Amino acid sequence: GPCTECSCSSGKAPSKDPSHTKKKEDGDGLSVPKIFFGTRTHKQIAQITRELKRTTYSSVPMTILSSRDYTCIHPVVSNSGSNRNEMCVELLEGKNGKSCAYYHGVHKLSEHHGLQAARGLHQAWDIEDLVSLGRKLRACAYFAARELMVGADIVFCPYNYLLDPQIRESMDINLKGQVVILDEGHNIEDCARESVSFGVTESQLRAAREELDFMVSNNIRQRDHGPLRAVCCSLI
């Protein structure tokens, strides 16, 4: 039946009952933890959000964290292949005198969803819904999803967003005191290995060795570059 302890379906303010909230460590206030729901693939996120729509909690504020591969709508960057991240950063930094108009329209998308939630019209959505709306409003879905995380009660994302400390830092994800749900947890080991693994080709190793040879021969930080060169040579 309808939830009586929170604002998800009744439209009322959340209950202040201490038994349903979590005290902050400093004791100065009360905070409700977010739910971080990690899955193995983006396809699984689509399945979960579809099921969420069928529940009483379909109106709970949510967001989906995803890579630029799935959310970028810039006509040049989105068709650039494997260097979307680099091109996006260059546009944000204003290199070559160019910028991203879609990034500057992020507020249109985040406020659009916020307005729906305020009117009680907010429904669970998939990343494709956000991207489609982003194209309509000419607003970046990638950064809008990150902004929506601030007010979200549920955050859906792939495993590595929760397991990889570098991604957590870049996405401003703080899991302390939050609820973490990992779907199909038996896949966690493989994901953890992938997060700390790196693939390199022989040509890349040879190029690195040549650069390190130059550093060592020109007496540039030999104590650092010498051992690195030895590693490259042994791998080759």
UniProtKB/TrEMBL annotation:
GO terms for biological process: double-strand break repair involved in meiotic recombination; nucleotide-excision repair. The keyword Electron transport does not apply. Residues 1-28 are annotated as: Disordered. GO terms for molecular function: ATP binding; DNA binding; DNA helicase activity; hydrolase activity, acting on acid anhydrides, in phosphorus-containing anhydrides. Residues 14-27 have a biased composition (Basic and acidic residues). Keywords: ATP-binding, Hydrolase, Nucleotide-binding. The keyword Hydrolase applies. This is FANCJ protein. It comes from Tyrannus savana (Fork-tailed flycatcher). The gene is Brip1.
